[in-house]
Write the structure tokens for this entry.
Amino acid sequence: MSTSTPHKVTLIPGDGIGPEVTQAVVRILEATGVKFEWERFAAGAEAFEIYGEYIPADLYDSIERNKVALKGPVTTPVGGGFKSINVTLRKKFDLFANFRPIKNLPGLETKWPGVDLIIVRENTEGEYVGLEHEVVPGVVESIKVITDKGSTRIAKFAFDYARKHGRKKIHSIHKANIMKLSDGLFLRCARRVAEGYPEILYGEHIIDNTCMQLVMNPFQYDTLLLENLYGDIVSDLCAGLVGGLGLVPGANLGHECAIFEAVHGSAPDIAGQDIANPTALLQSAVLMLHHLNEEAAANKVQKALEAVYAERKTLTRDVGGKAGTSQFADAVLTAMG
Ligand code: ATP
């Protein structure tokens, strides 16, 4: 329910297409009637130029205070350079659950209409702990960390979500035939948690087979529980099932704080041209509205977004239309009335 006290939200527009999609989303959020007080921060290379730090101390403080952030993508240098801002923030605030609902939007033709999947990705461990070193020239070690605590709490998150939202099945996705100890532990923890939820069917599939199965028949799955790296990859695959990265939202959730951000990256290939699709960040903002108990506003935005897709007149290029980012946002605003 909307209150007269504004929600203080940390806003990280990011870089690449980040500022464009963030601007579109903020315009839509401000038209919902819900009051926001945005605390805006640069992060990554842009922040380094201004503050000499990739994540300014004030940004950490702001998230710590507000407990909720809306974040655009921030470019991560490939094969060197500074550490991923996403990974750093997820670790710092112990945002252990990466939640990504994958659903078709009306009016978009895809190979499989009616996809409705939930991805629950462990967000703080696995190969993303950043423990890499060169042993001798030409030999590098990269450490994957899987813990009982981390695996148990993400499994519990998935089962609690499934129970609360009436989801029927959870599959743990793994490679325990090769990673016997690490993925083996992840599976043992999931099985132990599953015992407490007898009404939810529990299954296990190997990651490579899962990728093929998802492409051939996504309806055999409901909720997917994955380690960090597998979740990252399978999220993009699933985005492809429903029309691409421009659409799929995400939430990074911990016990204290939450950061809402799209699955996609900074898309430098289309940045600065007003052609990026803001839907993924907008649907992430809808998740944020639910998180803030602003149910009416969340439903209003989602309904307007779906009306724009159903009408098919003002869609962005990635989904076969001709509209620009701001034009698309205008259409959503009009549909909100
Ligand atoms: P990262 O590793 O940082 O997540 P990525 O490798 O997944 O990034 P993206 O930056 O997400 O790469 O871009 C992948 C492709 O998807 C690019 O061709 C990009 O243009 C397209 N894309 C991503 N986001 C959008 C969007 N919002 N609208 C339109 N196209 C997008």
About this structure: The chain has two domains: 1-95+247-337, 111-241.
